[in-house]
Amino acid sequence: MTEHLKEIYTEMCRRVGTNLSEVDLTEKNWYQKYRWPIKEELSFRDWLLNYLETNPEAIDAIVSVGIIRHVDKKKMATEFASYFGWDHLIETEQSKN
After folding, report:
1. Residue 66 gets which letter from DSSP?
2. Which end of the chain is less crowded, N or C, counting CB atoms within 10 A of the terminal residue's CB?
3. Is the distance from CB of 15 to CB of 44 less than 8 angstroms?
4. Tell me, what DSSP letter sits at residue 19?
């Protein structure tokens, strides 16, 4: 895993109260282990867009995971969060937290 991917996944984990070391990214459906509210995903997308703009070499790291091939950074951030982000909390789960 590149340092950029590590930084991105670390930020994702931080947003759901865990550490990257506690998530096995090789496990099938690893992204279903935690959930985040849609507004948290949107905030993460903004963070990722900023990260890509300030670290252009991170684009190659995201492309290396295989699914995302956009050059447009905003689309790249959106698709990364959609494909690799946590599942969403449903409305009733959000109101309990």
Report:
1. S
2. C
3. yes
4. -
Distances (CA, A) of 32 to 23, 24, 35, 87, 92: 11, 11, 7, 6, 18
Number of domains the chain contains: 1
What global pTM score does this model have? 0.75
50-94 residue pLDDT tens: 998 999 888 888 777 766 666 677 887 887 788 778 888 876 555
Token pair belonging to 29: 């459906």
> Is residue 18 situated within a structural domain?
no
* CB-CB contact of 80 with 48 (8 Å): yes
How would you class 5 by CB atoms within 10 Å of its CB: exposed for 0-12, middle for 13-18, buried for 19 or more? middle
